[in-house]
Amino acid sequence: MQIFVTGGSGQTGPAVVTELVAAGHRVTALARSDAAAARLESLGAIPHHGTLDDHDSLRRGAEAADGVLHMAYGGDFSDLDDMMRRDRTAIEALGRPLEHSGKPLVVTSGTLVMPEGRETDEEDEPDADGIAAFRIAGERACLDLAGRGVRASVVRLAPTVHGPKDHGFIPMLVATARRTGVSAYVGDGANRWPAVHRLDAAGLFRLAWEKAPAGSVLHGVAESGVTMKSIARTIARGLDLPTVSLTPDQAAGHYVSPFMARVYAFDAPVSSARTRELLGWSPTRPTLLDDLEHGDYLATPAS
Known about the structure:
The protein is an alpha/beta fold. The chain folds into 2 domains: 2-160 and 195-223, NAD(P)-binding Rossmann-like Domain (Rossmann fold, 3-Layer(aba) Sandwich); 164-194 and 224-268 and 286-294, UDP-galactose 4-epimerase, domain 1 (Alpha-Beta Complex), CATH 3.90.25. The chain has helices at residues 13-22, 34-42, 55-63, 80-95, 136-144, 169-180, 198-211, 228-239, 248-254, 258-264, 273-279, 288-294; strands at residues 2-6, 26-31, 46-49, 68-70, 104-110, 151-157, 160-162, 183-186, 192-197, 216-220, 223-227, 243-246. The strands form 3 sheets. Strands 3-2-1-4-5-6-10 form a 7-stranded parallel sheet, with helices on both faces. A 3-stranded mixed sheet has the order 7-9-11. Helix 1 (13-22) links the parallel strand 1 and strand 2 (26-31). Helix 8 runs parallel beside helix 12. The longest helix is centred in the first third of the chain and has 16 residues, at 80-95. The radius of gyration is 19 Å and the shape is globular.
C-alpha cells in the first residue's frame, strides 16, 4: 500500500517510516528541506517536498496515496492559537481527498491532553483546560472525518517516547541536572508519567494505519505511569549527583521555564489496555528506566 507520511524525518518519524517499509508498504513522506529529503531517502521513502502550510502539496500527497499518517507538528509555542490552526487546517487538507473512500487517516496527539490526577483510558474525554489542550483541535478535526467516510483514528503518544538520540523531555531533565548539579523532582515526586519506546510506538502507528476502525482513539503507552522520583533517582545515580525535592515555586526557577516546571510536576497516568486489545499491540522494548540506565541518555556530551 502507498502511505503518505508527514513528520517522517522528525523524532519518532524515522522509526515509523522504517517500520512501514519493512512491512512492505511504499512510503511517500513530506520533506520541507533537502536535508529532510536525504534522510527520508536513506530510510527507503520517496520525498514529497512541501510544508504543513502548503495545503496544495498536502492534498496532492494524500490524493496519490492509499491513506495518510500525520505526525508533523510545529510552530511557535508562544502562539498556541496559531499552532492549533496550523495543525487543524493541515489535517483538514489531508483528509478532504480521502472523504467517502474508506481510506485511513492516522493523526498524532499526546496523552498530556488527558485530565490530571487519575489514570484515564481511551474512552475518557480530554481536558479542554489542561496542559496540552492545544492538541485537542487536531484530534477533533481528525475524528470529524470518520463521519465523512474516512477511516480516521488518533494515536495519543506518551510524553516520553524514549530511545537513542532522544531530544525530548527526558534529555532536558538530564541537561538540567548537569547544569544545576542536582537531579530534581517536584513535591514528593509521586507524579506519574506514561512512557513508550520509540520502536514500540512505530509498531502501533503501523497497526493503526492498517486496521484501526474509524473513530478510534488509541493510546501509545507501554508504561502507564513512571514516577518522576524514580526518573530523578536514576539520573542522579548515572551522573553521581544528589536528588532534591523542589516546591512548585522553586521548580519554576529550576527548570528552563515555569511551563516546563508545570509539565514535570504533572500527574497523568494513562491506560492503553483498550488499544492493545483492539489492535493486538504488545510493547516489548526496554522500559524508560532501563533506557535511562543503559542507553545513551547519560553519556558524556561531546565537547
